[in-house]
Amino acid sequence: MFETTLAINGLIAILRGLHPDEAEAVGSALYAAGMRIIEVPLNSPQPLRSIEILRKTLPEDCLIGAGTVLSAVQVQEVRDAGGQLIVMPHCDEAVLHAAKNAGLYLTPGVATPTEAFAALAAGADALKLFPAEQVGVSAIKAWLAVLPAGTALLPVGGITPQNMAPYLQAGAAGFGLGSALYSPGLPADEVGRRAHAFIQARQAAMD
């Protein structure tokens, strides 16, 4: 399901700082705009509660997951809350194996080819290229020349509608969208408007 859901528009909404009382409205706005993968970082207020709310209120074709997952214990907590996807800022082997053993989709953070190969060997469904500004566009083309065919690289960090095109031209499969999409307290309708702008920008870059 992860691969087909990601293929819809290649975008993952990162809702860092989301409060549970915002979750339903923000999630609904994102879904209405066309987003189908939503991540709540675990360093947000009551993130497991927000994940529960998103999973209960959004249709089944929307994947809900957690970001900034740093331990095997957190993997189980996310699963118990209804999360389906584990997103990591790093490539910790214990967390990788815990996610796959729990039957969850997995997108670890990588910043070198060595980390990328290790993550794929552990069963990663996609690779979070992080931080994208540091790794750079040129790395994507170089990595994809040696990584297994079909590897999905997702730049995260500093992505805006205006700078997506070079990453896509280099072979990126999509993006994780952070503060340019959502920041705490932003009205749900504005989050939806921004999501729509990202989706339009990606489509224009792909045409």
Automatic annotation (TrEMBL):
| Family, as annotated | Belongs to the KHG/KDPG aldolase family.
**What pathway, per the record?**
Carbohydrate acid metabolism
Protein's recorded name: 2-dehydro-3-deoxy-6-phosphogalactonate aldolase
Q: Which NCBIfam families match?
A: PRK09140.1
Q: Select a single GO molecular function from the record's annotations and give it.
A: lyase activity
Keyword annotations for this protein, in alphabetical order, are:
Carbohydrate metabolism, Lyase
Record InterPro entries: Aldlse_KDPG_KHG, Aldolase_TIM, KDPG/KHG_AS_2
